[in-house]
Amino acid sequence: MYNITIECLDVAPSLGPQAAIDIEQEFRVHRTWHEEPSCTFTSGKLLLIARNDFDADGKALLDEFWDCLAAYLGEHGAMHILSVEQV
Known about the structure:
Elements: E1 2-8, H1 16-30, E2 35-42, E3 45-52, H2 59-72, E4 79-86
Antiparallel strand pairs: 1-3, 1-4, 2-3
Helix pairs in contact: 1-2
C-alpha cells in the first residue's frame, strides 16, 4: 500500500475551499480505488492525500487529481508529488 501526497499551487482563494470539498467527495464516491482520500486548501494550495496498492510513483493519483482540478477549478498552478510512502 502507498500513501501519496500531492499539492496543487496557485489556487484562487475564492475557489479553493469548495474545490477541496468537491475533490475529496469525488475521490470518496467515484474513485474508490484510492482509499482514505483527504483534500484540504491552505494558503493558496490544495493538498491531496490518498492511499492505494498500485501507484508506486504517485503518477496515477496525480493524473486523476489533474482531471478533478480541470473539472472543479479550470485554471491552477503547478502540481507536485510531494511524497510516496510505502505503508
